[in-house]
């Protein structure tokens, strides 16, 4: 972690005030005054005005993303999901994966970069479950054909490899559950487009073992449990 960020998160100072403190020589590392804000902090002893600072604990959040919000830190068109968090969390949290602006459901946020990378890595094989509403009803025959195609992998336009095997479960002729292992750009929408259908509603229910329960309303968030964090 950069020294200015470490100082900010350990003391509650804004990043700009933390940099001014560094320039004034108020911060020491292992007993030596340090003024470089971009210095990387690992296991050193950092003091501010003589007070020993502790390493900020990583935070992990499940947000019930509403439609109309973009999974980014800033945007000129749409409101960003970070605006749904308290002000003190907005400075350091990042989206661990993304959802389209019109997609709702499970969105994970963290300030732990390594955890976020593991979550997004296809090698991890972290299943993601979506509830998908379709424009065209599925007959039993068509549903069986699409289920087989998704299980084998689908060729998407512009991709050099087919999708990893996915599982389809039909709920109604126009509503299905789709479980995928990846997070390619607009993947769910492109998969159904590849089989001649159109997604009109998309809601992520689950990432790995992390499930969006009925107790979390749209726009609300909660911290992940230790077990949920360890599952990634």
UniProtKB/TrEMBL annotation:
Residues 1-61 form the RNA-binding S4 domain. Keywords: Isomerase, RNA-binding. SUPFAM superfamilies: Alpha-L RNA-binding motif, Pseudouridine synthase. InterPro entries: PsdUridine_s_RsuA/RluB/E/F_cat, PsdUridine_synth_cat_dom_sf, PsdUridine_synth_RsuA/RluA, PsdUridine_synth_RsuA/RluB/E/F, PsdUridine_synth_RsuA/RluB_CS, RsuA_PseudoU_synthase, S4_RNA-bd, S4_RNA-bd_sf. It catalyses: uridine(516) in 16S rRNA = pseudouridine(516) in 16S rRNA. It comes from the Bacteria. Its EC number is 5.4.99.-. It is an enzyme of class 5 (isomerase). Belongs to the pseudouridine synthase RsuA family. Responsible for synthesis of pseudouridine from uracil-516 in 16S ribosomal RNA. This is Pseudouridine synthase. It comes from Oceanisphaera ostreae.
């Amino acid at each position: 972690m950069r020294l200015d960020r470490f100082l900010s998160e350990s003391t509650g100072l804004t990043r700009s005030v933390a940099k001014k403190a560094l320039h004034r020589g108020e911060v020491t590392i292992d007993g030596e005054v340090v003024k470089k804000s971009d210095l990387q902090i690992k296991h050193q002893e950092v003091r501010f005005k003589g007070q020993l600072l502790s390493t900020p604990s990583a935070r992990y959040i499940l947000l019930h993303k509403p439609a109309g919000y973009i999974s980014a830190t800033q945007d000129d068109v749409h409101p960003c999901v970070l605006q749904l968090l308290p002000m003190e969390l907005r400075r350091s949290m990042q989206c661990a994966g993304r959802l389209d602006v019109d997609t709702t459901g499970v969105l994970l946020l963290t300030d732990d970069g390594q955890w976020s990378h593991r979550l997004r890595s296809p090698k991890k094989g972290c299943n993601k479950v979506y509830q998908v509403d379709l424009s065209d009803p599925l007959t039993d025959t068509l549903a069986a054909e699409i289920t087989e195609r998704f299980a084998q992998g689908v060729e998407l336009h512009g991709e050099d490899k087919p999708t990893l095997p996915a599982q389809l479960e039909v709920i109604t002729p126009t509503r299905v559950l789709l479980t995928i292992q990846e997070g390619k750009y607009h993947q769910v929408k492109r998969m159904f487009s590849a089989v001649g259908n159109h997604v009109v509603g998309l809601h992520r229910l689950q990432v790995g073992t992390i499930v969006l329960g009925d107790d979390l309303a749209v726009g609300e968030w909660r911290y992940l449990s230790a077990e949920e964090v360890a599952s990634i």
